[in-house]
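User: quick one - fold this with NAP bound?
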Amino acid sequence: MILEGKQIIGQDTVAGPGASFQAVDPANGETLPPEFSSADSQQVERACQLAWDAFDAYRETSLEERAKFLETIAEEIEHLGGGLIERAMSESGLPVARLEGERGRTCNQLRLFANVVRAGEWLDVRVDPALPERTPMPRPDLRQRHIALGPVTVFGASNFPLAFSVAGGDTASALAAGCPVIVKAHAAHPGTSELVAGAIQTAAKKCGMPEGVFSMLFDAGYEVGTALVKHPHIKAVGFTGSRKGGLALQQAAQSRPEPIPVYAEMSSINPVFLMPKALEARGTDLAQSFVGSVSMGAGQFCTNPGLVLGLKSSALDSFIEEAGKALKDTPASTMLTPGIHSAYEQSVAKLAANPKVNEVGRGLTGEGENQCQAGLFTTQGADLLADESLQDEVFGATSLVVICNDLDEMKRVAEALEGQLTATLQMDEGDTQDAAQLLPILERKAGRIMANGWPTGVEVCHAMVHGGPFPATSDSRSTSVGSAAIFRFLRPVCYQNLSDSLLPEALKEANGLNLKRLVDGKREG
Ligand code: NAP
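Assistant: Sure. Structure tokens for the protein plus NAP:
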């Protein structure tokens, strides 16, 4: 597959005058051709102007046209075939099966949003008809629908080069909402980004979409991303990555003359509570499945179980011993980038050097470059309560088991935790009462609470919440996975006493779109 290393701005493919950079194969540290050129401020301006020019036309495309556009993007990504997977493998070090699965998820996600668009429920149409005879004051005719926020900038994630990147959940949900999208490509997988961006560009042309509906810019540094976030035509931001990066972009968005929402998914250690009866009954199985979850994909998941809590007992001792044994045989695997690998090594070294932390075991060391050696550590509940740094995310295959003296201490530790994407209860029937005491705390802490599973693996569906209080995300009222992600890029508008001819189709008296509307407080249909 031929890569040009150029920006995609509307229907143009143009070289950037800024600094050039190359992708690195993390498996061997070698740079990969071609050179990618960074955009400059004029190209940022052009992409933003095109997106703004496209906005009014794009947000009023029919539900069918927009759904077809999303489906065509999925088809065009599939048409890229094995070349896309090969490039993504060499840029991320991820294995073929994982990337093929991720491509499937990416395309299914686009198709899910196509169906969401068609159904039109996201418009949330409410009609309160006029009551001219009402006393003492007549009621005017009031109608509400949701409209798109405006052009959105998306920062793709390094750990999902397909499903959370150029055509990932942020882009799919923003396009579904009617927002043009400008992606700042992640520098770790620029070739993969170029291929997927080309697929979106082709789909936009085939579907007759306004030109500025999609652009993608490269940057060797942070200038382009920051300029996009600060540009007055950009009205929202989607981000997945580090806490430092997410906070920097949020600050940039808040310091604008017109502040805008930033939906940043940043940092989570996903506590798992091993309840006593479950631990007694199936501690060995739990230890095996825990090690599988923590080491999967070199632990490079935002839902990695980085913290495990249990009550002091021989059952917990056995769990730790079994998990340590399983972990010692865990092969090392290649991490996504040299930067992520060195951050992992530093975080593990910091944890190991903490006098209140004991090392249970480390996994196998690897032969090649940027290998993630798994790690398991323990600490006491009181020590975690005394030292906030023990909550720091270690992005990779490492987890910390917290030994609590009793349920009260476990509750205190739960209460002291930062916001999380997930919280998990490993529990049996006899644990229900204890779990019920934890639940109100976990509801305040996490976006998803699960029983008897592991947090890695996020279903893309309607009920999913992939979000949570800070620092899991910058806005706990939203999800970045699942159909509800569309609401991040919408806002309600009320139309008072507008004549039927002026009203948008969704609000006209005839209900030509056949929407289920809330009329005078009652659901139609
Ligand atoms: P990152 O450093 O936060 O970068 C993510 C994206 O944001 C990249 O496109 C990056 O630009 C851009 N960016 C970062 N800081 C910025 C700033 N100050 N101003 C403007 N743009 C900025 O994340 P990463 O490189 O993927 O991984 C680094 C660490 O992030 C990992 O070690 C891990 O701790 C965390 N991480 C978390 C998740 C999660 O799911 N929450 C996922 C991946 C990584 P460049 O492309 O130019 O670098």
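One thing worth noting: The two ends are 50 Å apart (CA to CA).
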